[in-house]
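Write out the 3D structure for:
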Amino acid sequence: MNDVVFKRNELLAQTVIKGLESRNMKGYYAATKAEAMQKAMELIPEKSSVTMGGAMSAHEIGLVEILKTGDYNFIDRDAYEDKRAAMLAAYDADFFISSANAMTDDGILVNIDGNANRVSAIAQGPKKVLFIVGMNKICPDLDSAMKRARNVAAPINVQRFGLNTPCAKTGKCMDCKSPDTICCQFLITRYSRHADRIHVILVNDNLGF
């Protein structure tokens, strides 16, 4: 990332943080992945029960490995034979780790889900939700955020999972009703009624999809 783009992202992040504050959510700026990791560790006390959705951004900053090996009660759904049990355990966790498929520059988070375990945990259940969001996901308004989620994040994810959907072949949303579609549930988080529940670390890097 060149210096001009980095500086622009740095300034834009402050606008996003103000938007989050106006929506009863907390935002933080991290210039690097290492800074994002440090901030996450400040926010998640040791001994906490922690789980997550499929947040590639959390993997990319190294957070998942720390949670698995550190002094945390990490609820690893991949280690559960009964996946439903792992998903249900998430609702009583201290922290749910996620990313966003897209986010507006005034603090609205957009997420799409196939099984709905991720969006349902964001909406209700875990005591706190921590988002790790790369500045590549920031969009100027809700319409463009929805388009990013459907036309960038969704096609990449279905290709990653090897699913048979029209967007896996075209690279863009076809508004399908395929049995493999992951665009089943849409969650727009525009305000948090519960103060100190939703926290967002904005990382000045390209993270996730």
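The helical segments are 3-22, 33-43, 56-60, 63-69, 83-90, 117-123, 142-161, 166-170.
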